[in-house]
Amino acid sequence: MKLYDFDGMFDEKLSAHIAKNSGKLKESEWEDKIPELYKKFGNTVIKSIGKTPREFYASFSDVELIKCLRAHLKQEVPVSGFLSAEIEERGIEKQLLPLLDGSAAECEYAMTVFGAAECAIEKYMNLLLTSSDNDIKDKCLEYLVENADAAAKYALENYKNGVEKPLMVEILSKVNKLKSDEIFDILIKELKCDFENLPLHIGHIVSYGDDRALKYLSEKIDEEGISYLDFRELKFAIEALGGEYFKQRDFSDDPLYKLIKPQG
């Protein structure tokens, strides 16, 4: 299959056009004009091909179109906006799901197409747990958090099985519509048990936004021996969930308090 770098061709024509018309338009005006020129280029016949870029991809079957895309990614030939647009216009994006199991280039391209779409959530969770590419893992986590409602069932299962529990808790804390006692209980359990990461779990509870947590936050803030940092985080969380805390506490021996106090 012959691959064409249509965007590269456009860039060459654009550079020549800008040089020819130097000084006629301001930079901001060129930025507005470029999409118009790109659209015009897509409908311009390329003599060596005998078709416009849009016609070239329109002549492919769905299978050929996906095959062409994979060839571009494998051979590192830039994927033009015209190829991407043809896939989108046909509504065959779901046929790109297998790319999430492919090379890093294929995976990254597919992720830009799907974003946080529900159809990709299960694969994102699998990638989060199995990929050796930290950039891909980070992007998967970002999308799982963004669509935590769709990811919740997978996160709950992994949490119960002890798989990447901190990441699963982060995802569950962002659930919005599908709130449940099960998720709430997990967030409270982590608050009570993981003393070393108390601010993290306080943040998760605030993010989840269930005011039933006020009882547990109030119990925690009243504990003797909490640090000034933890006190501040807890007080903020109580207020964020609609509660109040007025008790006076003595942190005169706390290192952070000593550092902050002189500065007011």
Q: How would you characterize the overall build of this protein?
A:
This protein is mainly α. Helices cover 63% and strands 0% of the residues. Helix 7 (121-130) packs antiparallel against helix 8 (134-146), helix 9 (148-160) packs antiparallel against helix 10 (165-172) and helix 13 runs antiparallel to helix 14. The mean pLDDT is 94.
Which characteristics define this entry?
0% strand; 264 residues; elongated; mainly alpha; 15 helices
**Rg from C-alpha positions?**
27 Å
Q: Tell me the strand percentage band.
A: under 5%
Number of strand segments: 0
Residues in helices, as a percent range: 55-70%
Content-based structural category: mainly alpha
Tally of separate helices: 15
The gross shape turns out to be elongated
Distance between the termini: 70 Å
Quick one: biggest sheet? none
Q: What's the pLDDT, averaged over the residues?
A: 94
Low-confidence runs? none
Layout of strands and helices, then pairs:
Layout (H helix, E strand, L loop, with lengths): L5 H15 L6 H16 L10 H6 L3 H14 L5 H10 L13 H11 L6 H10 L3 H13 L1 H13 L4 H8 L8 H13 L4 H11 L5 H8 L6 H13 L14 H6 L4
Helix pairs in contact: 4-5, 7-8, 8-10, 9-10, 11-12, 12-14, 13-14
Summary, kept brief:
With 264 residues, the protein is mostly helical. The protein has helices spanning 6-20, 27-42, 53-58, 62-75, 81-90, 104-114, 121-130, 134-146, 148-160, 165-172, 181-193, 198-208, 214-221, 228-240, 255-260. α11 (181-193) runs antiparallel to α12 (198-208).
